[in-house]
TrEMBL record:
Residues 22-152 form the MgtC/SapB/SrpB/YhiD N-terminal domain. Belongs to the MgtC/SapB family. The lineage of its organism: Bacteria, Bacillati, Cyanobacteriota, Cyanophyceae, Leptolyngbyales. It comes from the Bacteria. Keywords: Cell membrane, Membrane, Transmembrane, Transmembrane helix. InterPro entries: MgtC/SapB/SrpB/YhiD_fam, MgtC_SapB_SrpB_YhiD_N. It comes from Stenomitos frigidus AS-A4. This is MgtC/SapB family protein. The keyword Transmembrane applies. The chain crosses the membrane at residues 15-35, 47-65, 77-94, 106-124, 130-150. It is a multi-pass membrane protein. It is found in: Cell membrane.
Amino acid sequence: MTVSVASLGASAGEWWGLSWRLILAALLGGAIGVNRQMAGKAGGLRTHMLVSLGAALFLVIPTSIDATIHPDAISRSIQGVATGVGFLGAGEIVQQARTKSGKPEVKGLTSAAAIWATAALGMIASAGLWQASLIGTLLTLFILGGAKWLEAFIPVRRKEE
């Protein structure tokens, strides 16, 4: 039995466009993941690639099932992904919570934010906004790398309890 692209409900051009957007989502997630992996963080290359690709796939669903998409369907998909990925990020924070000398120490906030941003980048790529997804990836990489350098120049005041 031979299955043609046309028999799957889409033209070859549509399949190539969809494939490109999904591949782009995975690659952009990979760029963020490499940065986190090099920093020795728990959520590295594979995690960020999967988050970005998964977010892209969740956005493909309402745009591909029916040609007469209800305007709220895409909005609900975006909201669902943002919320769900927020829970994934929360797990990253809780997993790294430690106590030293009896005082709680919170770690993993940047990693959680990177996972959340990666999901947004996947959704943007899936929507076909490849320019915005590339700019967003570059800005995310700058924030993860360059902004850390800037933090050294910002004075920190801690409340003593």
